[in-house]
Design goal:
Strand order of the largest sheet: 3-2-5-6
Shape: extended
Largest sheet: 4 strands, mixed
Helix content: 40-55%
Number of strands: 8
Structural class: alpha+beta
Order of helices and strands: HHEHHHHHHHHEEEHHHHHEEEEHHH
Distance between the termini: 93 Å
Amino acid sequence: MKPRLQTSLGQQLVLTPQLRQAIHLLQLSALELEAELAEAVESNPLLDWAEPEPIRAPPGDDAPREDGDGDPVAGDDPPPWTRGDDSWQQRVGPSSDDEDEGDAADRVAEPTTLHDHLQWQLHLSHLSPRDRRIGAALVDAIDDDGYLREPLETLRDSLRPELVASVDELVAVLRVLQGFDPAGVGARDLGECLALQLAPLPDDTPGKALALRIAAGPIDRLPKVGIEGIAAELQCAACDAATALQLLRSLDPRPGARIGGMPADTYITPDCVIWRQQGVWRVGLASSRAPRLTIHRGYEQMIGRAGASDGYLRGRLQEARWLLRNIEARGETLLKVVRCLVRQQSGFLEFGAQALRPLTLREVAAEVGLHESTVSRAIARKYVRTPRGTVALRSFFASGIDTGAGGETSSIAIQTMIRRLVEAENPRKPLSDARLAETLKAAGVPVARRTVAKYREAMGIASSQDRVRIA
């Protein structure tokens, strides 16, 4: 076959490096964006951190200055927050920890985990090197709640062939670990955990002896048989059983959770802030999320004098300009999406999750004129600060269920209603899934019993049989 040349027409979508960077920046979380910008400043000599400006008192209602449409005035800096919460006053920029500014005591130390805490105590113990190796294996098997769920026989086999030990040796070392802080750590079940916490109490503690008997035996049957059943089984007075149960309730069933238990929102930094001003909901970028990057003026002037001779610096200058534009575009897209969410879910801001209406990515994308994938990237791992706390942007989206009145209610609103009904129920006669479904139907939200069971399990609420409490 003779080779020949042919021409054809066609369309092809090509992602330029600038567009790729814009998409990448949009889907980053707030902390990931900070790390990305810090890396860009280190690698690009044309980028530099801008000098932080003093926080100005905004006019009016302690809020950023805006135009009549609720948008920040063009040319203004990112909103300076003057409220008492320090997290509203953070700025993106180089940390002053490298300088001698500030008190070192104010810096947050890395949290100690439960395993680190136990290993530290293990090294301070008077165990032999062999027992310490066994103790290290036991510590590794303890979960975050402080329980040793794995059988000792399995742990014994995992030590071989490097270390041959018997189950009795593991039990002896485990007894030492169970004396570590926090009290109750290393227990193999709830009863042993409570017994370990009762042991250090004085012998004259009211109800201690009976509480130890309950922890050793009928603790698992307590929800079903109640105080009277426990008293009959242990052949004691009901008032004595009540005293023992009160003592047991004062103990911690998850002792390991207290170690290294920094709240989850410690690492959550909001990208936007929603606040009310003169009865109108306003939206603005959090000042901590307004990156303060600039182009190094010295190198920029050098490039101007060098003309076209320095291709390296010119390429870096173009990259720096792209980054600054894409950062600005990221903020504009985020604000556009959040303003739409505020318009659609104002009831959520007013009354809470029970007023959350069904909302999909397609509806938001159609309103703001963006693609669904762009909206998805804009809300991914992003958080907004509201008068109801800091919440994920994905919390504003929910699937819908038809109501008896011809409207729709969100699945999250239904879950909130179920949780409130469970919290208000009689602990002696908790509501079954069928009863919860009947109550919701009477309120105009017809849902099936299996749907109620699915939502209840998703929220971590036990069944009605396990929720029985007799106190």
